[in-house]
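hiii so my PI (J.) wants the whole complex modelled not just the main chain, which honestly fair. so below is everything: two entries, each one labled with what it is. i double checked the lines twice but i was tired so who knows lol
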Amino acid sequence: MNERAVFFLSDQTGVTAETLGHSLLTQFDGQTFRQVTLPFIDSEDKAREAVQKINESTGEGAAKPIVFSTLVQDEFRAIVRQAKGLHLDIFDVFLEPLEIELQQKSTHTAGRAHGMSDIEGYMKRIEATNFALANDDGGVNRNYERADVILIGVSRSGKTPTCLYLALQYGVYAANYPLTDEELDKGTLPAILLNQRKKLYGLTIAPTRLRQIRKERRPLGKYASAQQVRYELREAEKLFKKYSIPYVDTTEFSIEEISSRILDSKGVERRVRP
Amino acid sequence: MNERAVFFLSDQTGVTAETLGHSLLTQFDGQTFRQVTLPFIDSEDKAREAVQKINESTGEGAAKPIVFSTLVQDEFRAIVRQAKGLHLDIFDVFLEPLEIELQQKSTHTAGRAHGMSDIEGYMKRIEATNFALANDDGGVNRNYERADVILIGVSRSGKTPTCLYLALQYGVYAANYPLTDEELDKGTLPAILLNQRKKLYGLTIAPTRLRQIRKERRPLGKYASAQQVRYELREAEKLFKKYSIPYVDTTEFSIEEISSRILDSKGVERRVRP
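here's the output for the full assembly
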């Protein structure tokens, strides 16, 4: 069978449809999907255009497309429904039980979920991102009093992307501090970290994986050598244990998983949920 | 009525449940929700713990909790179902039609969507994030040949968070370049940008909003003055028009919306959809 086309339809960004669709599709092994996002379907013309694109994807003998849709406006939804395909629509399914439970009609207005309806939440995410950048890599600010969490670990253990994700996704203030050779040699953490001990969370990673990542950055020299990598990771884990700092091995985890584990472990409140 | 409790239950990160729930709840105005994410429900004990937490939230006269769930394992799902609340479960609703259409049983394994099943996709996101950081603010690398898109605009128009989001969410290589006074005065773009003209995308923003953002950063001096802000934005828009560079006013848009518009406008392929 051909590669199957999957469409994510939205009257706004498509993020919800993509997230939902991706979650479901990962439950099916061995299938290949050609994924297309069609965002901002906010007019009859655009709805018809989407129908055309979907129908064009189903040539002779092609598998039926799968259409994940989060259109809230009934008129556009009705048009899109005419496209060939298996239609899976979260508003179709979940709005009614929510309306009954909340005893309130839904507004059926587009552009709410990832829009600016919550401008305060938006500003929090931006500020948290600026905080993460200013407090990245033990850098410039070291404004650790304001931090919700401070990630520590050796170079390239995943600290920066995790901090940025925590900021952009949840508005959480995450700083990070790279453990230096000096700290690893001495086996002590600096006062600036120990003053915020409750906020500390450690990242570690498998030596082979870390070497692979470091080699891409700096192929030669001590930095990516097997000996150095093993030494740093061993000493870092000793430090985590010495100070009872919770930590996670990031080798098998995605950014989302690491982030979720950190928030869960530290009891940090998500400021926003976009 | 009391603030209503909303739970996001997951055997992994909770990102899908949060995204779905948030999309739906924003369709109801004037309600206040107390939101709690319970991730990593991957054992009977944890499932029972979740039930307890949910039931505890419903005291005398409290509104029924709403439970968004993405548990894929039937045994844990059955336990969680015993909690009081309105249960909305995407796997309950959508897995069966997908199984029929794909003529395949779903794997019912946890931890797929935001897990490391797709290690290649994960590495792409990390690499794109490193690219965004190295090519931020016209900085260090200026490796514009590798960029999928180059955002240009005046200081604080939203370039950095947008680039980081594009990287983390979609694995897209986004660089950004801040327009300098010199470029605005002369009304010309530097050769390094003009060589990549097809990749350019402009960001603009309302003067009042920009002043507000800049004031928080540097309250005094020319940087946040009404005159300077208006001048910069006017000249930047002139540049966009002169070179026929598509641009968006970020004032009313979230990071997700800006990102989605850029990808849509430039026809940039999403490398991953987490």
